[in-house]
Amino acid sequence: AAACAGIAVLFVAIGIWLSWRPESEANDEFIAAISNGEFIPFYQPVMDIESLRLRGCEVLMRWRRPNGTIVSPGQFMAYAENNGHIFDMTRHMMRVSCEEVGELYGENPDFKLSINLFAGHFQDREVVADIKSIFENSNISFQQIVVEVTERHPLEDMEQARKIMAELQALGVRIALDDVGTGHGGMAYLQKLGVDIIKIDKMFIDTISSDDNSTTIVDSMVELADNLGMGIIAEGVEQEEQIERLLELGVTAAQGYYFAKPMPANEFIEFAARTEEE
Ligand code: C2E
Ligand code: CA
Ligand code: CA
Ligand code: CA
């Protein structure tokens, strides 16, 4: 019986070793990619759709593999968030943004830089210290920073999230609620968090020129934003007709493939030079 138990333990141990090993190797690779600086910012222009001038950009993370392949966040973001790697990755991305577009932002004090944070960032004050230390000595001022919090993932401790957002706002950073209307928060987030900007999800923009319900929803978001004194940005704009509808509804800021896809820094700087010239 003792021998049987011994063999059983051995099999269980091998099973655990086998199932654990590949994952830990994948994790080692991921950590190596982080320290090699493979996670980099791309920049998607945010436009003023009345004047067609550039208002700034949203920073979107990409994984640039050593072979040059560009991997989108859909492939790695959940892993990075679940393993807590996202904290290092976000810090690195903010530092690189300062290096890459700091000069452009120094020359254009009205430009805004939107950074995506995940729910976990709002449970830990470390993010306030990170933003302070990274941007304090850069050419990007706190007033130029917008921090995006998505409604897709629940914020566990609303009180704590509210405190962290208030600390950021005290610095001059603005808070945007992302993916509004698609997630958990709904009206409660708007009421409790004191956000400055709401971002209308692509889902509503997709059908805005064809579907009356979408139009009505966007219309009420605009009214809500106006009444609460918040700014509004439409995302995922791909067609001219959508811009026309948005203007009719009183939305003045938008981003989407219609204007530009997320792009590396050098292209974004060229894009800025082109739009500011016209
Ligand atoms: P999001 O914050 O809602 O970002 C908007 C997404 O829509 C981006 O996808 C962008 O490339 C895409 N998009 C913009 N305009 C259009 C359009 O006209 N048509 C279409 N089809 N798509 C458009 P991306 O870059 O793949 O990012 C996906 C999500 O990953 C983001 O959604 C965000 O939730 C997350 N993410 C990206 N970067 C970061 C980051 O640095 N930190 C965190 N925590 N999350 C990030
Ligand atoms: Ca976003
Ligand atoms: Ca969004
Ligand atoms: Ca979205």
Automatic annotation (TrEMBL):
The chain crosses the membrane at residues 1-20. Signal peptide: none annotated. It comes from the Bacteria. Residues 23-276 form the EAL domain. GO terms for molecular function: cyclic-guanylate-specific phosphodiesterase activity. Keywords: Hydrolase, Membrane, Transmembrane, Transmembrane helix. The keyword Transferase does not apply. This is Cyclic di-GMP phosphodiesterase YahA.
